[in-house]
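Exercise 7b. Backbone tokens:
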């Protein structure tokens, strides 16, 4: 049975089929973890594969890297870090390539995988080129799906990694995110992904909020997004405003008194 068939069977409505497939995957992860992860990343990156199977592969990859329990998370992290560099490199490459998939949903699946790997590697000083790669993807003018998935990835990374680990790249991350959220951006989906990424990055851009010019521009972009034609973008922008008020209330007097950017 192929990897794709096994993954498909984990989604079967038949309980027996589902349990058997799940048990076989768990056994594969224990007996040959490197091959198991390579198998999953290959299915995730396969443009010809059914979307629900690629989703299952992405979810299995993420679950092999992330755990809520701290002891288990440490175990998963150590297991990943002990993989040969060539194996890790291939899995990373598959996930990064899938960010630009012709299927936006596949890109969404990949964004969770890239973020899960980043959560393990960046705190260890590994994968130092990742943020630069992602920022380059955001500036890609020809692949909208790549921009959306990359902004989602940045948002997930900002959500899961301690601010001090990303602080050296905070200016670049903020620039990329704000660029995607501007009213001049023609894709509402790019704007929404950017607004969500901004929400998750607000905690580590404190220095930017200390500078009046930068703070004004951030507030302008967010306030303009509250007037977006897309209701989802509006909601995301208002959520950003609420979080900004919570984090930087001492800087907000001017904006509240003058209703500077016409939020309504």
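Sequence design result:
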């Amino acid at each position: 049975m192929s990897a794709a068939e096994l993954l498909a069977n984990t989604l079967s409505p038949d309980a027996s089929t589902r349990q058997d497939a799940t048990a076989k995957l768990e056994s594969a992860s224990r007996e040959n973890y490197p091959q198991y992860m390579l198998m999953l990343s290959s299915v995730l990156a396969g443009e010809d594969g059914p979307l629900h199977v690629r989703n299952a592969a992405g979810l299995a990859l993420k679950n092999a890297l992330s755990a809520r329990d701290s002891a288990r998370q440490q175990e998963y992290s150590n297991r990943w870090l002990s993989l040969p560099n060539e194996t890790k490199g291939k899995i990373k490459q598959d996930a990064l390539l899938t960010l630009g998939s012709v299927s936006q949903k596949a890109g969404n699946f990949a964004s969770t995988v890239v973020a899960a790997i980043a959560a393990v590697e960046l705190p260890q000083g590994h994968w130092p080129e990742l943020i630069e790669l992602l920022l380059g993807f955001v500036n890609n003018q020809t692949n909208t799906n790549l921009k959306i998935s990359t902004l989602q990835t940045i948002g997930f990374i900002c959500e899961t990694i301690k601010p001090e680990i990303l602080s050296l790249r905070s200016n670049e991350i903020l620039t990329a995110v704000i660029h995607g959220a501007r009213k001049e951006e023609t894709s509402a989906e790019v704007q929404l992904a950017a607004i969500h990424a901004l929400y998750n990055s607000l905690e580590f851009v404190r220095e930017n909020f200390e500078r009046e010019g930068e703070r004004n521009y951030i507030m302008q972009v967010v306030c303009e997004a509250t007037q977006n034609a897309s209701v989802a973008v509006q909601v995301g922008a208002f959520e950003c405003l609420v979080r900004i008020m919570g984090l930087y209330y001492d800087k907000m007097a001017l904006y509240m008194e003058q209703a500077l950017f016409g939020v309504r």
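Instructor comment: The CA atoms of residues 94 and 110 lie 9 Å apart. Residues 104-121 form the longest helix (18 residues).
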